[in-house]
Write a structure and sequence with these properties.
Elements lengths: L1 E3 L2 E6 L4 H14 L3 E4 L3 H9 L8 H26 L5 H12 L3 E4 L4 H11 L2 H17 L15 H14 L1 H25 L5 E6 H13 L3
Parallel strand pairs: 2-5, 3-4, 3-5
Antiparallel strand pairs: 1-2
């Protein structure tokens, strides 16, 4: 948890029971005025109604975008089963508490279909081949680049930093679309909230990989 002015920023793991606990404890004890979450309208609906990807989504995402989204959701679901926590449980807990306590809810992320379309357009064949190569290498050598950690908890900061460095160096366009650009969008939305409501306490919940850079960008004040 980090704070700046009236913003309290929590970096979470979307399959971590620890993150669910942290979200509930902060909202119950600190009673924020606004809860800002790393979601857009479509992802909010999916979490609340457990909506799964459908073939009809190809119309909005394209075939490549659909496959990328499906693979990501599949991996997250499998990891969630390992720890007994559904993906996005910390976000769902925040949404439910916001409704129960009549708190303002702000969606600060870019629309998912925009993100996926950007990714399918920007990702290069070199990155795609590198991804396949890394999977094969991991299966054969079984030597992970990241030190193992407890999936029930938020990864240590040094682990998060290492993971981001790997993505940035090996998949620069993936890093640009999924991390860098979204950090800028979420930071700007948070900055707008804190300037519009300077006397209200804003509790922002984002993936741990976004926390540090979002806070740095917010502090610049976009000036």
């Amino acid at each position: 948890m980090q704070s700046y002015k009236n913003i309290y920023l929590l970096g979470t793991s979307h399959i971590s029971i620890e993150s669910v606990t942290q979200v509930k404890e902060f909202i119950s004890s600190k009673r924020p005025d606004i809860i800002a979450i790393e979601l857009d309208k479509k992802r909010l609906y999916s979490i609340l109604h457990k909506r799964k990807l459908k073939v009809s989504d190809i119309r909005f995402l394209g075939i490549k975008g659909f496959l990328i989204n499906w693979i990501g959701a599949y991996i997250e679901k499998k990891l969630g089963k390992l720890v007994g926590t559904a993906p996005g449980s910390e976000m769902k807990a925040a949404i439910i508490l916001a409704k129960e306590q009549k708190l303002q809810l702000a969606l600060i992320d870019q629309p998912i279909d925009v993100t996926i379309k950007k990714l399918t357009k920007e990702i290069t064949w070199r990155e795609k081949l590198r991804f396949i190569k890394d999977i094969i290498k991991g299966v054969i050598t079984r030597k992970p680049q990241i030190k193992p950690f407890d999936l029930r908890k938020v990864p240590p900061k040094e682990t998060i930093k290492k993971m981001i460095e790997i993505v940035r160096d090996s998949y620069p366009n993936v890093y640009k679309v999924l991390i860098k650009e979204r950090n800028e969008i979420m930071a700007k939305n948070l900055y707008n909230l804190t300037t519009k409501y300077p006397d209200k306490k804003v509790f922002a919940i984002v993936g741990a990989g976004h926390e540090e850079d979002i806070l740095k960008i917010v502090k610049t004040g976009f000036g």
